[in-house]
Give the backbone structure.
Amino acid sequence: METAVAFTIIGCVLGFVGIMFNIFPKQINQKLMGDLSDEASQVSAGFRIILGGVGITLAIVALSSRNFSPAEAKSLLYALGTGFVVIVTIFATVKLRGYGVFPIPPAIMFLVLAAIAFYTGSGLTVE
């Protein structure tokens, strides 16, 4: 896969998730956590919006990196892939520590993004 395509896919997915987290934080929390008290709903919506901002930030980085040289692209793709694996690992620790459930759809999304990053990065030749 071309690096520009990989960065575009990663950027668009993360950007979409970030925008949705910012537009619909309470609705997303409702689907993920069920009914919350008003105070808990407000606090969790604030955190959801912040997470959306992180997604948008990573989308900007990925989309801005589409014209990187092979060496730069390979480095960033491995960093993004590793970061996505870390996110899924943290999802698992949340469940193991008793703080919630393991979010399967987001975990699958991040694993697919990691696979795209690692697959594309491994095919690059650096001179």
Remarks:
- Helices lie at 3-23, 25-33, 38-64, 70-96, 104-122.
